[in-house]
From TrEMBL:
Protein name as it appears in the record: Uncharacterized protein
Domain of life: Bacteria
Chain segments annotated as transmembrane: 107-123, 130-149, 207-228, 240-258, 270-288, 300-318, 338-359
Keyword Hydrolase: no
Transmembrane helix as UniProt keyword: yes
Record organism: Jiulongibacter sediminis
UniProt entry keywords in alphabetical sequence: Membrane, Transmembrane, Transmembrane helix
């Protein structure tokens, strides 16, 4: 969550002003999404968020069950949570627009779309979890394969792909090219059923509604990890480590053989496996540090953010401009030039992040937690 909030630093802008500096170029790369194939640190934010939803589910279900909630009541809460997440995502994407912007490709909406099925799986055993994951990924892969490739004279520039874009794939992998795949075609049908300012033709980044299906696969991996954690299984770190190795090997085989490229923007099955491996790796690291070694103080500031992740997510989408303008009013238009104009986004971004953290810290100590 902190990495998402830290977008306000705009490291790409700093890197552009220092074109010969490899350090800032590296930081910029890892604060940006890759154009299509591959992965940066920034690309792992959404999978990590989705994975943690799965990790938390067994504990949430146990808590509600211990409070005497019936399965019917739990289902009501699940459907309600799902709808709120979907609509909150739509609300945040509609800001600064003339009318409601009905798309469903962002983190909250994607989680909301898959959450009821994840909840249903929460009542099942681990064999069901693995079977559901395999079924989702295989059939999602097959659906893309069966969707016909565009004709040789297909105009990619008409769907937002720059001329001579170097990331277009050929051969079998072309089934997962930007804005010419199954998910793009589905959105051209689905999203035009909603009232819009203009006809939906494509998403500029290539993102798609149908990505919620393999995103559910990421949440299932989290559910598997969370169930193991809840049951306090022995040799937990070794098992998670084995899962991580198997997942990343499978992903690389799919990618290198051309059977399925690693593409985050349309959440290919290979991406689900690849990012899932990193999520298990993060779980291993923080479970070992915080739960087993009890090293908690260095991560206190992150805990404050994580305990109010929904509030942090919304703040990062609505508050940046307001805070920056407020400081400009009271400290002057150039308050962020403290380190010179090259680093102005670092100064303004740090101020915004500090204000957010103070607010979240106040909420934490007042035990105000925004839950859905």
């Amino acid at each position: 969550m902190f990495l998402m909030m830290a977008e306000v630093w705009h490291l790409s802008g700093v890197a552009e002003k220092l074109p010969q500096n490899g350090f800032w170029a590296s930081l910029s790369f890892h604060q940006s999404h890759v154009p299509w194939i591959g992965c940066s640190l920034h690309d792992l934010i959404q999978p990590s968020f989705s994975f943690l939803v799965g990790v938390a589910l067994p504990f949430s279900m146990l808590s509600r069950s211990s409070k005497g909630q019936s399965r019917k009541e739990m289902w009501y809460h699940t459907i309600r949570r799902s709808l709120i997440l979907i609509l909150l995502g739509v609300f945040l994407r509609s800001m600064h627009r003339e009318m409601t912007y009905w798309t469903f490709e962002d983190t909250l909406s994607q989680i909301g779309l898959g959450y009821p099925f994840l909840f249903w799986l929460g009542f099942k055993n681990r064999k069901w979890h693995w079977a559901a994951l395999a079924t989702i990924l295989v059939f999602y892969w097959l659906a893309f394969v069966l969707y016909p490739l565009p004709s040789t004279n297909f105009d990619y520039t008409a769907v937002g792909v720059p001329e001579n874009w170097p990331h277009l794939m050929e051969g079998f992998s072309a089934h997962w090219n930007k804005n010419s795949n199954l998910a793009w075609a589905f959105d051209r049908w689905l999203l035009n059923l909603f009232p819009r300012e203009s006809v939906f033709e494509y998403n500029g980044g290539g993102y798609a509604t149908l990505s919620f299906v393999p995103t559910l696969g990421t949440m299932i991996l989290g559910l598997i990890a969370g169930t193991m954690l809840k049951l306090k299984e022995t040799e937990l770190l070794k098992k998670w480590g084995l899962y991580a190795i198997v997942l990343v090997v499978m992903a690389l085989i799919l990618h290198l053989t051309g059977l399925n490229p690693i593409v985050k923007r349309i959440w290919t099955p290979a991406w689900t496996l690849f990012s899932g491996a990193f999520c298990f790796g993060f779980m291993i690291l923080f479970h070992w540090l915080c739960d087993l070694k009890r090293i908690e103080k260095p991560f206190y500031w992150l805990k404050i953010i994580g305990m109010n992740s929904i509030a942090a997510y919304v703040l990062a989408h609505v508050g940046n401009e307001f805070i920056d303008q407020t400081f400009k009013i009271h400290l002057g238009e150039n308050y962020a030039h403290l380190l010179g104009p090259t680093y102005s986004s670092l100064v303004s971004g740090s101020v915004i992040l500090f204000v957010y953290w103070l607010l979240l810290r106040w909420m934490y100590h007042k035990k105000i937690f925004i839950k859905i």
